[in-house]
Amino acid sequence: MVQAVAVEDLCEGLFVVALENAKGRLRVNKPGRIHSIDLINQIKTNGIKTVWVDFELSDLSFYVPDRHLRNPKPPKTTSMDTERIRAESILVKSKDLLSKAIDNLYEGKNIDIAPIADLSESIVDSIRCNPDAIHCVAALRSKDSYLLEHSLNVAFLMVSFGRHLGLNQQVLKQLAIGGLLHDIGKTQVKLEVLNKPARLTPEEFEHMKLHQVLSEPLLDCIPGLSDMSRQVSLLHHEKLDGSGYPRGLYGDEISLVGRMSAIVDIYDALTATRCYKQSMSPTAAFKILKSMTPKQLDGELLNEFIRNIGVYPVGSLVELSDNRAGLVWESNDTSFLQPVVKCFYSLKYGRYSDIEMVNLADRTDLAIERGLSPGKENIDPTPYR
């Protein structure tokens, strides 16, 4: 797939097939990848305005499409009700497949990438049709299945994030595979540490950090695994200031995929319920993520992540201005603050109420007051998902 790229958006790894200046398109004697910043600067100084890039032959690790030049956000092509049926099926298959893969690792067996690749295609296609559906069904989580559900959610969020950034279908598939496998090194740490029903001690945390080192040989044993999928796993604990692990990479040493996965991994961990902590509301998680920019996390990329999932993400619990609580059921592509909310609880009276679907885009008398943590409010949204 050959597309035009503004010269300002060039980066190492792009496969250039043609150039274009004010006079028109120019042929390239020897098409190939950009391997240095010096070459990019040379292209700019020669008056080139546009570069034609073959994305299928490119290494897109460092490529971020300019959001101002990007095509409009793709419309949802299926309804929430229709896509939810498929999303529920994908979630069941995902849990079964990933559970078997984890069991194989515990037994010393290698992972078969073929069924995971097929599953990743289904995930990408569902999110392409209507991303709300898979995020809504994935929001139903168990505190006793953290490793499994965290891996699934990282995969879903990485695909949704990549779609928002304008990355192509093949890249999204690699992000899904990487998300599903990003924590496989945890199958090699001590079970008493992995499953401890309390916060880890400093010594236990140092042991847990070994999962990043232990992931690499497991990934090496998976034939056909792309470098991009590996990056999701190997870079998601790296920080821009060099304080991350296991390599302590700094700044531009961390690829786009690594920066994305760091944001997604932290966000999902903060908003998950664990046996030793309640889930945090997305808005509270965003505040923590914001506090980590620009020192540890990419601030511009974090803003794009929030634009993608919304201030009040699908599947999260919110309070409306009439003191009712409900689940964000469907996003509003034109106004993030006016989603469809499935109301089922009265905060005023402290009891469950009749279900009502409220489209805030049609209600000038109602608005979202704040995001809620189900555990802290003692509200169980499970029957209403």
UniProtKB/TrEMBL annotation:
<keyword id="KW-0378">Hydrolase</keyword>
<feature type="domain" description="HD-GYP">
    <location>
        <begin position="126"/>
        <end position="321"/>
    </location>
</feature>
<dbReference type="GO" id="GO:0008081">
    <property type="term" value="F:phosphoric diester hydrolase activity"/>
</dbReference>
<dbReference type="InterPro" id="IPR003607">
    <property type="entry name" value="HD/PDEase_dom"/>
</dbReference>
<dbReference type="InterPro" id="IPR037522">
    <property type="entry name" value="HD_GYP_dom"/>
</dbReference>
<dbReference type="Pfam" id="PF11871">
    <property type="entry name" value="DUF3391"/>
</dbReference>
<protein>
    <submittedName>
        <fullName>HD family phosphohydrolase</fullName>
    </submittedName>
</protein>
<dbReference type="Pfam" id="PF13487">
    <property type="entry name" value="HD_5"/>
</dbReference>
<dbReference type="InterPro" id="IPR021812">
    <property type="entry name" value="DUF3391"/>
</dbReference>
